[in-house]
Design brief:
Two copies of one chain form a homodimer. Helices cover 40% and strands 22% of the residues of chain A. The first copy, chain A, is of the alpha+beta class and 126 residues long. The first copy, chain A, has four helices and seven strands. The first copy, chain A, has a three-stranded antiparallel sheet with strand order 1-3-2. In chain A, strands 5-4-7 form a three-stranded mixed sheet. The N and C termini of chain A lie far apart (49 Å). Chains A and B meet through helix 4, strand 6 and strand 7 of A and helix 4, strand 6 and strand 7 of B. Strand 7 of chain A pairs antiparallel with strand 6 of chain B, so a sheet runs across the interface. Chain A binds a DNA duplex (30 and 30 nucleotides) through helix 1 and helix 3.
Chain lengths: 126, 126
DNA sequence: CTCGCAAATGCAAATCTTTGCGTATCATTA
DNA sequence: TAATGATACGCAAAGATTTGCATTTGCGAG
C-alpha cells in the first residue's frame, strides 16, 4: 500500500475521536482539509485501512456503519438497543473467550472490535 | 404489529434456508410469490422482523448485510476472512461468555447471532 | 356491520455506497 | 534523472438503501 494522504488524514481524524464516525462524518471532516476530495476516494481509503487492520468497521445498531481507529488497541462495546447507551466490555473477559473459541475451533480470531447488543441496567425492565 | 403477508413470506423463506440471505436475495425470492411487491416494503418488513427479534441481521464480512431466521434458536459463526469458510461456534461457550459479561456490566445481552472473523486452520499460516 | 385508527404498502425522490474506467501520482530501478 | 509499473484518485454511472407522503388494508370498538 502506498502512503496515501487521504488515508493519513482519515487515521488522524479517527484517532482524535473518542467516538465512532460514520463514513459520512469521515467524509465531512476530511473535506475540511481536502475540499476537493471525492466521496469514492474516502470509501476506498476506509476499505484499505480496514483491510490493513488499522481501523475497525462496525455496525453499532444505528443503521450506519461506523469506523474507528484501532491504534489504541482492541476494545469492545455493549450497546443498549433502547437508549443507545454504550459501555466498554472488559478486554480480559473478551480475550479469555476468544482463547476458548480458538482452542475449540482452531480458528485464529482477528476481530478487534466486538459489539454486543442488549439492554442496559436502566432499560432492562421492559 | 399487524400480520403482514410480506413478513410471513419472508419468515417462511428464511426458515427454509440453511444459509444467510442478503436483502436482495430475499427480495428476489419474495418476488416469486408476490411479483408486485415493492423493494422498500421488503426492507421495512426485514426491519420490523429484526426489531421483533425474529430474524438476525449480520455482516458476515462479504460487504452485504445478511438475514437469517432465528426460529431455530441462537447460534454463532466464525468466518475465515481469507477463504470465506464458515464454522459454527459452540453455543455453550458463547453463553458462558455472555453470562460473564452480563455479571460484570449489568447489561442484558440480546445478541443472538455472534459473528467473529479470523483465519481458519488451513489459512492461518500466512 | 360500519366506523375509525393504526399499521403496512406503493411510489418517487433522496441519500448512501459501489464500481468501471481513464488519469495522475508515487516509488522503484536502471 | 528518466522510464516503468503499480497504486491512488476523480468522475460518472449503476446499484442499494432509506425516507416522505399519500393510499390501502386489516383489526378492534362501538
Amino acid at each position: 500500500m502506498r502512503a496515501s494522504s487521504v488515508e493519513q488524514i482519515i487515521l488522524e481524524t479517527l484517532s482524535k475521536q473518542s467516538v465512532h464516525l460514520t463514513s459520512q462524518q469521515v467524509f465531512q471532516t476530511i473535506r475540511q482539509r481536502l475540499p476537493a476530495v471525492n466521496q469514492s476516494t474516502v470509501y476506498r481509503a476506509l476499505e484499505r485501512l480496514a483491510e490493513a487492520g488499522k481501523i475497525s468497521v462496525s455496525d453499532m445498531g444505528t443503521g450506519a456503519t461506523v469506523y474507528e481507529s484501532l491504534s489504541a488497541g482492541p476494545h469492545h462495546h455493549l450497546v443498549c438497543q433502547r437508549c443507545g447507551h454504550v459501555q466498554t466490555i472488559d478486554h480480559a473477559t473478551v480475550g479469555a473467550f476468544f482463547e476458548t473459541v480458538q482452542a475449540q475451533s482452531h480458528f485464529q480470531i482477528a476481530t478487534r472490535h466486538l459489539v454486543l447488543f442488549g439492554r442496559c441496567e436502566g432499560c432492562a425492565t421492559d
